[in-house]
Write a structure and sequence with these properties.
The chain is mainly beta. It is built from no helices and 16 strands. It has 3 domains: 62 residues, SH3 type barrels (Roll), CATH 2.30.30.30; 61 residues, OB fold (Dihydrolipoamide Acetyltransferase, E2P), CATH 2.40.50; 57 residues, OB fold (Dihydrolipoamide Acetyltransferase, E2P).
């Protein structure tokens, strides 16, 4: 248990029968009336962000979470199999717990966030950017080598489709933002 003085960005609390992570907070002390803490809370399971106000000194049910380094191995009927890079223990993770799962490839590292008291996986975080090879895209027209405002569809090595600038060709390596699925830049080899 804790109270509003413990609130900080990234803190996870048990609130309204769900786990919420503090996205942002602001301690407010108005001229009249008691102080309070205005927060934005993100539901860990659904991703929905809500605004909430706690009166100053209110009790909070703080949940201890741990980030552990894992490496993605393969997919089978139990889910996506990850291996702890420190203990070599293997665990299955449901695809729904991973944002940007379409950019996951074998051998990729990810952080899996666990509820420390229940030893339950809450979600997995891929790296912010991944490098992928373009396996198919329509060829760009001559003279389109510098245009970045016009986009075309491209298929990458994991099978996902994203939009890329016209100058990207088959075999090019590109950097992709895993949170948005957007093209970032061409990787120089």
């Amino acid at each position: 248990m804790g109270d509003t003085t413990d609130i900080k960005n990234g803190l996870t609390i048990n609130y309204k029968n769900g786990l919420y992570s503090v996205v942002s907070f602001q301690h407010v002390k108005p001229g009249k009336g008691p102080a309070f803490v205005r927060t934005k809370l993100k539901n860990i399971e659904t991703g929905k962000v809500i605004d909430n106000t706690f009166s100053s000194g209110a009790k909070l049910d703080i949940v201890r979470i741990e980030r552990r380094p894992y490496q993605y191995l393969y997919k089978d009927d139990t889910g996506l199999i990850f291996m702890n890079t420190e203990t070599y223990e293997q665990i299955p993770i449901d695809e729904k717990l991973i944002q940007g799962v379409e950019f996951l490839k074998e051998g990729m590292n990810a952080d899996i966030v666990f509820h420390a008291d229940k030893e339950m996986a809450l979600f997995a975080e891929l790296p912010m950017h991944v490098e992928m090879e373009v396996t198919y895209t329509e060829p760009g027209a001559r003279g389109d080598s510098t245009s970045t405002t016009v986009l075309k569809p491209a298929k990458i090595e994991t099978g996902a489709e994203i939009n890329v600038p016209l100058f990207i060709n088959i075999g090019d390596k590109i950097k992709i933002d895993t949170a948005t699925g957007a093209y970032v830049e061409r990787v120089k080899s």
